[in-house]
Amino acid sequence: MKDIVETTVTFSLNGKDVTVPEGTTIWEAANGRGLVIPHLCHKPEPGYRPDGNCRACMVEVEGERTLVASCIRPVADGMVVKTDTDRAEKSRALVVELLAADQPAKPHDASSHFWDMAAMNDVSESRFPAIEQARVPLLDDSHVAMRVNLDACIHCNLCVRACREVQVNDVIGMAGRGHDAKIVFDQDDPMGASTCVACGECVQACPTGALLPATVADTTNDTKDFDEEVESVCPYCGVGCQLSFKVKDGKIKYVDGINGPANENRLCVKGRFGFDYIAHPHRLTKPLIRRDDAPAKGLNVDPANIHTHFREATWDEALDAAANGMKGRGREIAGFGSAKCSNEEAYLFQKIIRQGFGHNNVDHCTRLCHASSVAALLENVGSGAVTATFNEIENADVAIVIGANPTENHPVAATYFKQFTKRGGKLIVMDPRGQGLKRHASHMLQFKPGADVSMLNAIMHVIVDEGLYDQQYIEAFTENWPAMKAHLADFPPEKMAEICGIDADTLRDVARTFAGAKAAMIFWGMGVSQHIHGTDNSRCLISLALMTGQVGRPGTGLHPLRGQNNVQGASDAGLIPMFLPDYKDVTDDGVRSAFTDVWKSGDFSNQKGLTVVEIMHAIHDGDIKGMYILGENPAMSDPDVQHARDALAMLDHLVVQDIFLTETANYADVILPSSAWPEKTGTVTNTNRQVQMGRPAVPPPGDAKEDWWIEVELAKRLGLDWDYTHPSQIFAEMKLNMGSLDNITWERLEQTAVTYPSLSPEDPGQPIVFGDGFPRPEGRARFTPANVIPPDEVPDAEYPHVLITGRQLEHWHTGSMTRRASVLDAVEPEANCSLHPRTLRDLGVKAGDYVRLTTRRGSITIMARADRAVAEGNVFVPFAYVEAAANILTNPSLDPYGKIPEFKFSAVRIEAAEAVAAE
Ligand SMILES: Nc1nc2c(c(=O)[nH]1)N[C@H]1C(S)=C(S)[C@@H](COP(=O)(O)OP(=O)(O)OC[C@H]3O[C@@H](n4cnc5c(=O)[nH]c(N)nc54)[C@H](O)[C@@H]3O)O[C@H]1N2
Ligand SMILES: Nc1nc2c(c(=O)[nH]1)N[C@H]1C(S)=C(S)[C@@H](COP(=O)(O)OP(=O)(O)OC[C@H]3O[C@@H](n4cnc5c(=O)[nH]c(N)nc54)[C@H](O)[C@@H]3O)O[C@H]1N2
Ligand SMILES: [Mo]
């Protein structure tokens, strides 16, 4: 836990008294007063420990014989420090001059920190002899995203700290001594052959250009690397990393992380190197209308034959066609909005469906994602959002990560989790698959897929049995405890061990560890939510946190790691069939009228709408005949996707608004080309409830337009009286009925991120909520007991194996963006699945060969990798690859509360592809 009481010290800095908190270094104290002492190995940014190895920041301390490195020396009471003496200045300049001697004649990075510091010391060249030519290290260009030019390396150790201490990836090290010292990747592999995950933290940290993004290294560098910097938010995941797009000649050249509340300058491979999808030749640049003589609808359009299916149209023509096919058709039209677009765009989308068609058949990918978690949270805690930011793990001593794989899917959040373990925090990982956090875990529970409830109930049983629960907390803040306690009696660990595959002693140890924590957090993901008992899984996690009183304080809380960059915001904005913005019940007359008053329109349906999978069924049933789909790719992301594709083909009018001609757009009648995230203005809300401003770095290509503009133009043609001319006006309207945005204004967001709830115009927002009760009757959270329910489809003789679907670091969902991002596609170019080496051996398949996977819904053929992390008899398939689409296989059965499909468990038959072909 952080120190709350702060003691201060006063010292003299260049003749002036300065008071700072104890422990502050001379460098920090000076910097805090606007005085920048030259520095090379020091990076004054969160996560970087000062190292004091380069001597570029030497200052004089009265009474000390030698100069001291200001970056590592803490100030002391009465200390007299001079930074500007002749001796200090000469010494610092000498350090830089000596290093400059060995720098390449032409810097790799003209705008590098090193040359800024040289200039600060009035050094432009060196009087010292350069390194012998024979000793100059060679260029290492083995990595697709980065270049290693060790001739510019000054051994400052920043890349080592970046890799080991900030991102905790442990790839870079320093080998050799003295003259022979050099940085190495793993056991001195070329960077491209090492275990590097390409987060690029080292590139961002390197002060000399020895490590550089390839996009910068590949160009002549006699000019500055960029013309303009635009601060925005990463377009990929729910972590919501703030970043700076470096724009050169109208294109994004590279990306740096900046100091956002969630990421503190860190990024992952997608955020840093995955941006060039926006410049891919497949970008839609003109509105398209299906030709009258087009072939039958199917998955049959590709860039080469686009014009046999579609013709280019003007915006007027395309918008008229889009609107005319939908206007006045009420319930025949349904909508899927987007969690990749802004809050304002999500709000407008649900408004179009509700105001324009009079019903609530509007949903988005949250249904396939955390819908069950949100159902359980709303039911038992009264709010669907996280109770604490993930960064609160800094204040925890125990954390559970269950059914989530953050090193690949929330990589920047994972850096904080790994740092937590380095500080001694106990990390309990629960996943049927060994995953990236395993080697950092104090407890790794590799249990049987689908058996979460049995495992969690057993853990809670022990907590009750051994009296480890927090009676005071339970009495003050919860309801239904007696029933919960009685229910748990039936789940002793010995009995549950058979079901979940974790022995009773381990379950007891985990129970004691979690219950004994001073502060503990629970993080979860799709492994928990994507089951027919997903809501029950979350209910258990909520109960576990409540009975141990681990909510509402620093370092405690419930945190479902939200997936899409704006799934929290899109859900908050009402892109949900049962809720208006801020989770207000659509069946409540007063709620609807509050909205229709603002919208100045008549009432709309008081019935909850249909969800994603239900809408596909309703198309097959002939009830829904047209759709408007914004920034979502159901022809790849829905379960039992052939059924979904057949549904899309049945529609008589499909409008798709996307940046690419996706699999879904293959079935469209009208395609509206939109701007990608780095091309537009709008706000997004991350997993931490932090609302942040996105800004355009480059213009959209061709005639592509911002999504909100397209929505407005379409609404006008549907007869709606909309006159927004800027997203800020939409945001202002949202605020009228969204208490969550109180005190958060567009103007504030232009300056800084704000976490909701924000209690005053100055409050940066509350990272932790519910310390003094819950937004439920009497302020009490509820225990809802859960029973053990098996997965919908258990293995049998015909389908004897278990299929688990999920994600990989480099690819985003349906691949539409990342398979068009050059670095990401180069790292993971081919559809692949993972199986245990013994499973492969039993099948007679070698790693790299192909397997045939068959479920009751269909078959795919896919390259197999050997991976000991996958349990025997299981297969893990990422769903990013159209040529071997995982969702051909998945089971569309739904959880009854969250209406989420069971993406994480299907019975499957695995065969050697060769054997099948020979039959
Ligand atoms: N690189 C990348 N990052 C992403 C995304 C992406 O597509 N690519 N998508 C984003 C989105 S929208 C989301 S929702 C998140 C999802 O992020 P995660 O929740 O981490 O996603 P998954 O990889 O689908 O599944 C997580 C884990 O669940 C485990 N699991 C499987 N079955 C079970 C089970 O029965 N019980 C339990 N407890 N665990 C099980 C799997 O082994 C897997 O390790 O990622 C976001 N980030
Ligand atoms: N088998 C299996 N299936 C799953 C899952 C799983 O774990 N296993 N996970 C589920 C989960 S958690 C999720 S969240 C869903 C995700 O499912 P989807 O949301 O359908 O997947 P994405 O590929 O993210 O689709 C986003 C679309 O938005 C487009 N896009 C990107 N930026 C913009 C923009 O600025 N404007 C517009 N108009 N379009 C844009 C992209 O090109 C892409 O077509 O998949 C679900 N499906
Ligand atoms: Mo998701």
TrEMBL record:
Ranges for domain 4Fe-4S Mo/W bis-MGD-type: 227-282
Source taxon at top rank: Bacteria
Protein keywords: 4Fe-4S, Iron, Iron-sulfur, Metal-binding, Oxidoreductase, Repeat
Span of domain 4Fe-4S ferredoxin-type: 144-174, 187-216
Pfam families according to UniProt: Fer2_4, Fer4_7, Molybdop_Fe4S4, Molybdopterin, Molydop_binding
Domain 2Fe-2S ferredoxin-type, first and last residues per copy: 7-87
InterPro entries per the UniProt record, alphabetical: 2Fe-2S_ferredoxin-like_sf (IPR036010), 2Fe-2S_ferredoxin-type (IPR001041), 4Fe4S_Fe-S-bd (IPR017896), 4Fe4S_Fe_S_CS (IPR017900), Asp_de-COase-like_dom_sf (IPR009010), CT_Formate-Dh_H (IPR041925), Formate_Dh-H_N (IPR041924), Formate_DH_asu (IPR006478)
GO biological process: formate metabolic process; respiratory electron transport chain
CDD domains: fer2 (cd00207), MopB_CT_Formate-Dh_H (cd02790), MopB_Formate-Dh-H (cd02753)
Assigned GO CC terms: membrane; oxidoreductase complex
Recorded GO MF terms: 4 iron, 4 sulfur cluster binding; formate dehydrogenase (NAD+) activity; metal ion binding; molybdopterin cofactor binding; NADH dehydrogenase activity
SMART domains per the UniProt record, alphabetical: Molybdop_Fe4S4 (SM00926)
Keyword Iron attributed: yes
Family statement: In the C-terminal section; belongs to the prokaryotic molybdopterin-containing oxidoreductase family.
Name of the protein in its database record: Formate dehydrogenase
